[in-house]
Design goal:
Oligomer: single chain
Distance between the termini: 15 Å
CATH class of the largest domain: Mainly Beta
Number of domains: 4
CATH architecture of the largest domain: Sandwich
Shape: flat
Number of helices: 3
Strand content: over 45%
Number of strands: 29
Largest sheet: 10 strands, mixed
Length: 432
C-alpha cells in the first residue's frame, strides 16, 4: 500500500468516526406523545383529549397547530399557537372533539393534528396573521414549507419541522363484524409454526364464538395441511386472538396460510405468506439497561445470522401501542451488515417521557435483505424496569442494570484508533 493510499484510508476512517460520534447523539427537534388517540364513536359525544409536545433542543420558538383529514370539522382548539421558551422541555396541548349523531360509513375515520415549528422572525414579519402553508408530508414527520413576508418586504420560503398526533375514530358496524389480520411466527423444518389470527370486533353486538380453520398451501397452491384454532368470544369494540400451531414437516421454502374465521353465522378471511427454513436472522434476546421511567430506554437487540453468506442492511423496527391500540412509540435501530453465522447487537432508543407505568403491546420487525421477521411482544413498563414476553412463549425479555450506556461507542472508537495506530507502526517499521 502506497503512502497516498494509507493517507486516504486513515482519512476515510476518521470521517467515519466523526459521523458515528455525531449521529449517536441525534435527537429530533420536536416530539409528540402519544402519537395516536383512539375514540369509540357515540352519538353526540363530547370529549376533551390532550397530548404533549416535547422541545428536545430546549430552544425558544412558536409552534402553529392545525388539523387535517376528515375529522377536522369535529376537532377544535382554544389556541392555534404554542409559545416555547428555552426552559420549556415540554408542553401539554388540549383539544375538544364534538361528534354528530351519525357518521358514515362505519369503520375507522382519521384526523391529523399537526404541530409545526414557525420561523423565528415569522411574527415580527407578519404580526398575528398566519399565511398559507404548503405541507409536504413524509410519513409521520412532515416537513413544512412556509411562505411569508420575511424582513425588509422580501417574500421568503423556509422549511420547518412538524410532528403529528393522530386521532382515530372507530365507528361500529351494525350487528356483528370482525376485522381480521394474520401473523405468523416462522420456524425451521421439523419445528412448529405458530399462526395468530387477530380479531377486532367493530360491530355493535358481542360475538359469542369465533373459531378459525387455517389451510396451509404449498408452492403450487395445493392444500398440504389444515389446522383448527380454539374458540374465543369477543365483546363489541374489543379485540381478541386465535392461535393455531402446525408442525412443519416439509422442505424449506415459501408457503401461504389462508384462515377462514366463522363467528356466529358470519365468515371472515385473512391470509399471510411465510417461510419454512432459511430463517436468515433471528432475535435471540433483548435487554434494557440502566432504565428509569421518563428517560431514554436503550434496547440492546441481540440477533443471530443463520445463513452462510453475508447479509446486508439488517435493522430493527419497533412499534409500541397501549392497551387501546394507541401508538406510543415508533423507532428504528441503525442498519448494519452481518457476517455468516454472526451474532450482532442492534441498538434502538425509546424516549419514555410522558409514558405511564403499565402494560403495552409491542411489535418488533427485523428487516434483512428483502425479508421482514415480526415478533409480537407483551410489554410491562415499571419505574425502573421494562419486562417483555414474546407472544406465544418464544422467549423472555427482561431489563438489566448497567453502568454506562456509551461503552459500545467508546469501545468501537478505541478499536478503530488502535487499528490506525497499528497501521502507522507497521508501515514505519517497514520503511526503515
Amino acid at each position: 500500500m502506497s503512502r497516498q493510499s494509507r493517507v486516504k484510508w486513515m482519512t476515510a476512517t476518521l470521517v467515519a468516526l466523526l459521523v458515528l460520534i455525531g449521529s449517536s447523539g441525534y435527537v429530533q427537534a420536536l416530539g409528540v406523545t402519544p402519537g395516536r388517540s383512539t375514540i369509540d364513536f357515540q352519538p353526540g359525544l363530547e370529549v376533551t383529549k390532550s397530548f404533549t409536545v416535547t422541545n428536545n433542543e430546549n430552544k425558544q420558538f412558536n409552534a402553529y397547530i392545525y388539523v387535517e383529514d376528515e375529522l377536522g370539522e369535529y376537532i377544535s382548539f382554544d389556541t392555534h399557537i404554542i409559545a416555547f421558551s428555552e426552559s420549556d422541555s415540554s408542553k401539554t396541548f388540549t383539544y375538544s372533539i364534538k361528534l354528530p349523531e351519525r357518521i358514515v360509513p362505519p369503520g375507522d375515520h382519521w384526523g391529523k393534528i399537526v404541530v409545526m415549528e414557525l420561523p423565528s422572525d415569522f411574527f415580527s414579519a407578519e404580526g398575528d396573521d398566519i399565511l398559507e402553508a404548503a405541507l409536504t408530508t413524509m410519513g409521520d414527520n412532515p416537513v413544512g414549507l412556509i411562505e411569508y413576508g420575511g424582513t425588509e418586504g422580501k417574500t421568503q420560503i423556509m422549511a420547518t419541522v412538524a410532528v403529528v398526533h393522530q386521532v382515530r375514530l372507530k365507528v361500529p358496524y351494525p350487528g356483528k363484524y370482525l376485522q381480521l389480520e394474520m401473523g405468523v411466527q416462522e420456524a425451521v423444518p421439523g419445528e412448529s409454526v405458530k399462526f395468530f389470527v387477530k380479531m377486532y370486533n367493530l360491530g355493535k353486538e358481542d360475538i359469542a364464538k369465533a373459531q378459525a380453520t387455517i389451510d396451509i398451501l404449498g408452492p403450487t397452491n395445493e392444500v398440504i395441511a389444515t389446522i383448527e384454532t380454539g374458540p374465543s368470544s369477543i365483546k363489541s369494540m374489543e379485540k381478541g386472538e386465535l392461535l393455531g400451531v402446525w408442525k412443519a414437516d416439509v422442505n424449506p421454502g415459501m408457503y401461504h396460510a389462508a384462515a377462514t374465521t366463522r363467528y356466529d353465522g358470519e365468515v371472515g378471511k385473512a391470509e399471510k405468506t411465510f417461510y419454512v427454513g432459511n430463517m436468515l436472522v433471528d432475535v435471540i434476546d433483548i435487554s434494557v439497561k440502566d432504565f428509569s421511567l421518563g428517560s431514554v430506554a436503550k434496547f440492546d437487540i441481540l440477533t443471530e445470522s443463520k445463513w452462510n453468506q453475508n447479509i446486508g442492511n439488517v435493522y430493527a423496527h419497533m412499534v409500541i401501542n397501549d392497551q387501546n391500540d394507541n401508538k406510543m412509540a415508533d423507532f428504528k435501530s441503525a442498519s448494519m451488515d452481518m457476517e455468516p453465522f454472526e451474532k450482532a447487537h442492534l441498538y434502538a432508543y425509546w424516549d419514555t417521557e410522558g409514558v405511564m407505568e403499565g402494560d403495552y403491546n409491542a411489535k418488533l420487525s427485523l428487516h434483512y435483505g428483502d425479508r421482514v421477521a415480526e415478533r409480537e411482544i407483551m410489554t410491562k413498563v415499571g419505574l425502573n424496569s421494562i419486562r417483555m414476553d414474546f407472544a406465544g412463549g418464544a422467549g423472555l425479555v427482561t431489563s438489566e442494570e448497567d453502568i454506562l450506556e456509551q461503552y459500545p461507542v467508546i469501545l468501537l472508537v478505541a478499536v478503530l484508533v488502535a487499528i490506525n495506530f497499528g497501521w502507522f507502526l507497521y508501515f514505519r517499521k517497514r520503511r526503515r
